[in-house]
Amino acid sequence: MVITGLLLSVETCDNVDCGPGKRCKMNRRSKPRCVCAPDCSNVTWKGPVCGSDGKTYRDECALLKAKCKGHPDLEVQYQGKCKKTCRDVLCPGSSTCVVDQTNNAYCVTCNRICPEVTSPEQYLCGNDGIVYASACHLRRATCLLGRSIGVAYEGKCISECPTARPWLRLRSALSANIPLRRGSANCVCL
Predict the structure, then answer these.
(1) What b/e string do you get for 114-128 counting C-beta neighbours within 10 Å, with b at 16 or more?
(2) What is the pLDDT of residues 99-141, one digit of tens each?
(3) What share of the chain is helix, strand, coil (3-state, %, to 5)?
(4) What is the DSSP annotation of 51-102?
C-alpha cells in the first residue's frame, strides 16, 4: 500500500518460522515475535517431573517451556519430584537410576561396551581407589553401582597402603580435601 509516496510495511506472522516449540505472536507494537508455546497435546503424565537439570517442574509442559526458553538440552529424567535417592525412582526404558556427587538421583543409560584402551594416559584413579581404564569404564561402573564414582586424579591409583592390612583403604586427595596432584593419594584407617 502506498500513501503519499511512502511505502507502508505490513508485518504479520504469516511467513515467520519460529522453529519447534514456538509460535509467532504479534506484540503490542504490532510486530511479529516468537514465543514459547510447546505442543503439550501428547503429554500423558499430568503430574510433576524431574528435569535433567535437577529441578522439579509442575508438569512436562512446564519443562518443555523451560527447554524452549533457553535450555535446549533439558529433558525429563523421570516422573515425580526430583529425589536425593534412587528409592521409588522409575527410570524410563533401559536406563538406570544413579545418585551423583551432589546427592541427586538421575536416570542414565549404561554403556555395555567401552572402547579398548590404547594409551596409558586414559587411566583414571577413581575416588574409590580403583583404577579405571578410561572415563567410559568409570561411567559404566558408576552406572552399574548406582552411585557416583568421582575421579580422584588422572593415571593409575598409587597406593602407599600396606596390602597386608585390609583395614587400611586408599582415600584420594579429592575426598580428603587435599590439593589435587597427579598421582596423589593417602591411606586412612576405616
Answers:
(1) beeeeeeebbbbbbb
(2) 887 888 988 888 778 888 888 788 999 999 999 999 889 888 8
(3) 10, 25, 60
(4) ETTS-EESSHHHHHHHHHTT-TT--EEEESS--SSSTT---STT-EEEE-TT
**Which three cell numbers mark 69?**
526458553
Asked if residues 13 and 24 have their Cβ atoms less than 8 Å apart, the reply is yes
* pLDDT per position as a tens digit, 89-104: 999 888 889 888 788 8
All three cell numbers of 73: 538440552
| CB atoms closer than 10 angstroms to residue 75 | 13
What is the number of residues in the chain? 190
| Whole-number Å distance between alpha carbons of 58 and 62 | 6
- Cell digits of residue 110: 549404561
C-alpha cell recorded at residue 99: 545418585
Name the DSSP class of 66. Answer: H
Hey, what's the cell of 105?
538421583
| Closest to 70 in 3D by CA, of 36, 44, 101, 95 | 36
